[in-house]
């Protein structure tokens, strides 16, 4: 520790900290623009100049390390003069028109100018004008306002992983710009809006819609991925105007993914269902809650009475709250129905009943930064969990080595030490190779079950998998670690794969040998919570896949659009069409719910209270930030009244808080979580190492801006370059083999369904695979996300049909 | 060379013209001096010429006799050699900052990016005596343990760059560069890097960024290049003339070099004399030579006019009115006492027909255009200053502009990342200080006191 003095205040600070760190910790305000605690130090704005004893020039507080005995003056004559002169320089070319600037009222430059600027300007020469850049649908630019602090440049390079903005030109001609004719495509791009200390980068969707002081700021939890990012929802006149990150170092730090930031635009979608609706003779009719609930209850009662509880299928969105999950589970039990499931995009349920607890990510989000070796299995991490990718990027920047086993070779925007890009079918074998190689590298004799040992015997370890095994064991070209901290994670593609059990078992075995942390990366906001609540089939019940495979007489849907949210779109559509009655609790009225019979309007996360449990087991409750739209009601209330109408007991909850208390039995949530989270398997499941199957395999990835009903309706996110309509993407070799070319029209067949798709050359796809995005109307006729697929060249009639489809979609 | 010049027509510089080059390599005593030793030879830039004059003998001696680094550094310290790029930092002391033991590659960088108006001395070193620079760098590399070196050459001089590349090829061929030199375990690879003509790349950390392939922008110091230089590795950066002085120092000893000059300013120095003199060019003279002698060597003020002012070390040094410089000596202390500084020795002489207001406009335009734009005071301030002076020259000046200019220059100076801010402020402050009545006249009458236009 060093002893220093700032403005006469003696302080003890850590060795290596800068003056600004010390001042911030002591609550001494030093103005700054370019400095940001999460970015590299640029020292270019010069606003933080302070006087330091024994130095004849003022020094930038952000870039000056403290030394023992240093005496710093932040408000002395010399310091203030320096700060004022910098302020004057910053303002000469900056437009002084705060009243028409979108940043007005929340602008660092404006605030600091009040404190350090003069009341008038001495500048009478011509001002600089900089042309605006179009950097995409999310961030609006007003480049004349830019003060060249380069926070945006550094963010995209250091945090985003790719330098998509840069400063070109010299001196006064210097300006921030993207690559020629390119937009900023980072999935974290919205953060540059927060970082920009002036009105140069503002939110395009929010621009000119409200003033910061008109907004009520309410805390909430982001509902689109498993991180549970903390957000601040800004509301005006009961309407969500924008979403900003709320700082939480251990989860989202001070960042937010674009999905979490801009999805709110979907809340104000014209698709929102405002009143209950019942289908009479094929026609939708608006109705009141009482009629709707009584009708729904009557239907449920009739069908379960007539065919038994088993005739009902209950499909629950993993983005729904724990309270909603609990109540729907109770309600199903009350109807004698064991067919409840939240795992809509899963197809392999062989591990059911074999788990010792609730699967989770196996470590805390923050711990990822400290890992030395990371193995990602079947995950396009930037697409699935953008901020988790950012943590891994940090780990890699700190020297961690990242290994990837995946059917997709998408650039994670960080160095990848080793990767194996193969068909999902072959991933199991690759993992087996790693396991076998690992066992050879261990000093101890391997204690694998004899069955597994026998399986491994047939496997031949290839050089690249040997490398991964060595890497995980700590051997590296750079530095050999004796006991590296290893993390092994399974992503969405692994979770949706029919060989998930094999992948999971292998990962667990590799993890056991390496002493790795890790587990699955649950895709949705409350996947872990739903598992903990047991929103899963009873011992005799059907899982999500079985429920659509063997159509039920009736379905109760919570917060889902079956053909877009289910593993097998064609089966889901078919099952809904065949059912006598489909009751959907939904925030949206959509084409995907055309086969429903009763629509009950429920409140999305901003209009209801509830609890999510994140992938790291964090139980986080939130309140409604605005009142429900129209006749919408919180789903927990709807479920409670529906249960009451059904005459079921034990549903007399007056608040979601009461439901939560019931869930946790009044205990601290963390206590239950601590007891419940466990990735271990009770017993080994019979697995198969070699899956020899000819033919093509589909990689049905869910694009990040199609992941749930809210995101699907956010216009700005839909306008980003990530939102391109599904195509049949294949490796060049694959195209040659099939005699196809980029741009050809093909028919993709899965089971009985098909889809018309354009071919796209994509060398990021493993050979033997076709990447066809899911959760899109164009692919709603297809089957399993990771299932077998056949591709045929389309006829001329198909071409006309395809054009028609596109027009309809537009 | 001629074909190459046409090939590179788009990048041709003044050096491509067949300009008269009245370079004088001796002082009035006629003694042969240090950095342009080969000048009077037939093929001054060739290896044979340099070897004939004893070239590379010092490198060979130091390497084969395994002379220890501290001994070499000590000689450089004794020589009183101070950085010839303008800052005048003692070279020996700078060398002692390089970490002796370092697990990795250390780098050596030569700054031949002279871009300030009136500076053209380093160009003549690589044009006429490139091997002395190469030998100097190799000795420095041997002393400092650098494995790789770069000579960063200003973007606007192409022919000279080619001459240097040719010299490098010769030196490699002759075994003065490369692996295991003279059968020792000392290896040194030297490369030339051609810049793109940005003045800012003459700032050592911007130069390093540029070598790394990035936009030339100064880095914040500390850390200094000695601990974090090229590719983040320890790097020693010196000026061309500094390195080129080393072989002479090694040959004759540090004391002999120091004795060429005066206390605190060792050796000889190249002065680029330009402006209103009869014989502009580079003059290598002993440190401490009276100004008058240098002016006499340059043929005196042209056209029989009177001396008005001198910028002694390049525009980043303060202008001196005739009375202030007339009795000054050309060395660090002498010019400092007289109210300016030696800088890079780029002496711009102005006769009595020179309008100081218009001169300042041109100089501030240079700094305005060459500011890198990274930090606020320089980016914004240089443009503001230039615009005010431009307005004065346009006849729209206001009396309060002079105080504003002074104030703004003081606000730029000392508050920027690198010294370009200080450099931009110095001419403004010194011109107004010494020639204020001329500025006031211009503002009052809307025209120049000197030429009436």
From TrEMBL, chain A:
SMART domains to which the protein is assigned, alphabetical: NADH-G_4Fe-4S_3
Cofactor binding note from Swiss-Prot or TrEMBL: Binds 1 [2Fe-2S] cluster per subunit.
Superkingdom of the organism of origin: Bacteria
UniProt catalytic activity: a quinone + NADH + 5 H(+)(in) = a quinol + NAD(+) + 4 H(+)(out)
Domain 2Fe-2S ferredoxin-type: start-end pairs: 1-78
EC number(s) per entry: 7.1.1.-
InterPro entries attached to this UniProt entry: 2Fe-2S_ferredoxin-like_sf, 2Fe-2S_ferredoxin-type, Asp_de-COase-like_dom_sf, MoPterin_dinucl-bd_dom, Mopterin_OxRdtase, Mopterin_OxRdtase_4Fe-4S_dom, NADH_UbQ_OxRdtase_75kDa_su_CS, NADH_UbQ_OxRdtase_ferredoxin
Top EC class, one word: translocase
Keyword Iron: yes
4Fe-4S His(Cys)3-ligated-type domain ranges (all copies): 78-117
Hydrolase listed as a keyword: no
Residues of the 4Fe-4S Mo/W bis-MGD-type domain: 215-271
Cofactor(s) it depends on: [4Fe-4S] cluster; [2Fe-2S] cluster
Keyword tags: 2Fe-2S, 4Fe-4S, Iron, Iron-sulfur, Metal-binding, NAD, Quinone, Translocase
Family listed: Belongs to the complex I 75 kDa subunit family.
Biological role stated in the UniProt entry: NDH-1 shuttles electrons from NADH, via FMN and iron-sulfur (Fe-S) centers, to quinones in the respiratory chain. Couples the redox reaction to proton translocation (for every two electrons transferred, four hydrogen ions are translocated across the cytoplasmic membrane), and thus conserves the redox energy in a proton gradient.
NCBIfam families attached to this UniProt entry: NuoG
Name of the featured protein: NADH-quinone oxidoreductase
Organism: Methylophilus aquaticus
Gene designation per UniProt: nuoG
